[in-house]
Amino acid sequence: IVRMAELAKETVKCAQEGFFQNNEGLLKQAEENEVALDNFQQTITHYLIKISEKSLDARESSEFPVLLHSVNDLEKVGDYAVNIAGYAASKIKHKTVLSDDGTNHINSMFGKLYNLFDVVIDSLKKRDSQLALDAIPLEDEIDAMKLKCREKYIKRLKNNVGSTESEIMVMDIATNIEKMGDHLISIAKAVIKDLK
Taking the model in full, what pTM does it have? Predict the structure, then answer.
């Protein structure tokens, strides 16, 4: 599952870099990684179900749902990364140019998301509920950044600043980043509750 989380992070990075560099090779890599995440989900889920058929002790029984939900959350992160790759393809096709403010805001959100990934991955590796608690303020920051992005989006549209297409794209990417954060925090909360 840790390897799956690391691959999910790599998938997001490929989507982000492909988006900002108009690099179709990185976007293709993001899509290929997402297929690998789907395969991880199937393989790990099958394995977890198989071992759940054996008699599990109390600790293993409490870990089972955490691991199963974590796998599903990580697969969803991959889906959101592919959404961003799709926005990149549209950006390339339509030669959409984002504002500097939009670019900076999105890159800041990605930075927070990578911090959140690192904390979640580390807490999974160490089964450290105290470390997982550090994820909560990071996800709160991502939520606040998305709200700020929305406020700026509405203000820019009201004032006819920037293209509608680029502003919508920034808002959509911010929403996808926030949703990835939601899935990562779900894993952190499961570590806090059940992986001690």
Answer: 0.92
